[in-house]
Amino acid sequence: MDHQSAMNYPYTSQRNVTYSKNGMVATSQPLAAQAGIDIMKQGGNAIDAAIATAAALTVVEPTSNGIGSDAFALVWVNNKLHGLNASGPAPASLSIDALKEKGIKEIPKFGFTPVTVPGTPAAWAELSQKFGKLSLKEALAPAIQYAREGFPLTPTLAYFWEKAAKVFKQTLTGEEFQHWFETFAPNGKVPSVGELWKSEDHAQTLEEIGDTNGTSFYEGKIADKIDAFSKKYDGYIRKEDLASFKPEWVDPISVNYKGYDVWEIPPNGQGLVALMALNTLKDDTFSSRENDDTYHKQIEAIKLAFADGEKYITEKKHMSQQVKDMLSDAYGKKRRAEIGEDALIPEAGDPASSGTVYLAAADGEGNMVSFIQSNYIGFGSGLVVPDTGIALQNRGHNFSMDPSHDNALAPGKRTYHTIIPGFLTKGNEAVGPFGVMGGFMQPQGHLQVVMNSIDFGMNPQSALDAPRWQWMKGMQVLLEQEVPNHIAMALTRRGHNIQVTHEAGHFGRGQIIWRDPHTGVLAGGTEPRADGAVAVY
C-alpha cells in the first residue's frame, strides 16, 4: 500500500490523508481525538491516549457508547499484537427459563432484561495497568472536564441524539426510564447542534473510576448503585455479577490476505465474519473496484460468512465449530465455489468437514491501538443508573432464546458481539489499526476498507471515503447513492434486491492509521459519514 495512492479516486470527499510523526488519534468526534493527543503531550503513550479518547467518547458521543458499555482492543506493543476482550456476561440469574416464566419469548431491546455486565471501565483499567505510562486518573481527566464543563453538540451527534429521543419518548414509559430523560433530555429538551450539554453525575463517576482504578464500578460505591437500581425494578444484574467480572487477554485471530495479515478478536466477537469473507476471496484478482463483479463477489462472500456467524459465533467454549476450521484454506475454497454469477440465499456450511464508537491511536514509539466500545443499540437499554450518568448497555438483545442454538442465553455467558477492532500487519511489521463501527455493518465495513487498501491501493482517507454497500438479509442490499447507477442496475440483474439510500447511519463509521515501517510516519484517515477527526502532533 502506498500512502499517496488513489488520491484522485472519483468518489472521495476530497479530504486528504493526515500525516504525523509523533502521535495520532483518529475517531468519530474531534474533542475526543484531541483528548487523546493532549494525553500524549503530557507524556502518555498510545495506550494512555486510547483510554483518554474512549473515556471522552462516553461524554461527547453518548448516542453510541457510555460507561456502561463493553469494549475490545488490539494493542501493538514491543512488536507483538495483544487482544483484550472486555465484554461482560449475562447475569447469574438471567436464563431462558427465567424469562419464559415471565412470558418473555424474545429478548427485548430496552429495559433490564438485555442488560449484561459492562466491561468498559475494566478495559480502561486493564490497559492502563498493563501498558500505560500514566495513571488511569490522569488518562480520564479530559473526559471529566468535558462532562463537568460541557461541550457543544456536533451535527451528526445531534441528529442521532434527537432520533433516539423520539423513539424513547414513544417507547420508554416506565418509571425506571425517567433517569435517561433527566440526563439526556434535561428539562424536557433534547440538546441541539452547537448547544452545550454536561453531566456532573458523569464527571463524578469517571473521577471515582479513576481514583479506584475501576474497582468502584465492580466492587464499590458504583456497584452498589447499579445493584440497588436493578433490585428496585426487578432487574437481573447484581453486585455479585459485577464483582466476578474480569477482562480476558486473548490471542488475536487472522487470515493472510494477499501478503497482509488481517487480525481480529476471536469469538465471541464477529470479527470472524470479516476474516471468513476475506478468506473466501483471497485467491481472486480484482481488476477494478468499480464494476459489478467486484461488488457481487464481496456481497456473496459476506452473506456466506454471516450465515456461518449467525449459526456458530458465541462465547468460544460454547461454539460447536472450531475457529481454525472456519478459517481453513479448504473451507475458504469450498465457500468460494458456492459463489456463482447470480445472488443466492445464504446458508450456513459445515466447517468441520471441509451503534458503536471506534478509535485508532499511535505514538512515535511504535505503539498502536485499535479500540472499540459500544452500548450496542444507540443509547443502550434506555436505563441510566441514578446519580451516576451511567447508561447501561443492551448487549443481551443478541442472545438466542433457542436452547439448542450455540448463542443460546445462559447465566454467566457472553453473547455474540458485534463490535470488532481490526489490525493489519505485513511480515513482522505493524501496518496499523483500522475499524468500522455500526452493528452488523462492521465486518462488512472491514471487508471493504481492507480490500480498498490492499486490492485497490487506496490511501487511508480514500479507503474510508469510497462508497459502501451493506447486505441486510436475504437478497436485500443497500447501496450508498454515490455508487454508480450502472453497478446498481447490473447487481439487480444478478438477482440482488438493491436499494439506494443516502440515509445516515447505514454504512458505518471508520478510522484508519497506517505506519511507514521505514520512517515511522503515520498516515491517518477519518470517516466522512460522522463528525470524525484525526488529531496529531
Automatic annotation (TrEMBL):
Q: Which SUPFAM superfamilies match?
A: N-terminal nucleophile aminohydrolases (Ntn hydrolases)
Which protein are we looking at?
A: Gamma-glutamyltransferase 2. Threonine peptidase. MEROPS family T03
Q: Recorded GO terms, molecular function?
A: transferase activity
Which domain of life does this protein belong to?
Bacteria
What keywords appear on the UniProt entry? Transferase
Species, as recorded: Alkalicoccus daliensis
Instruction: Kindly give the Gene3D superfamilies that the UniProt entry links to this protein.
Output: 1.10.246.230, 3.60.20.40
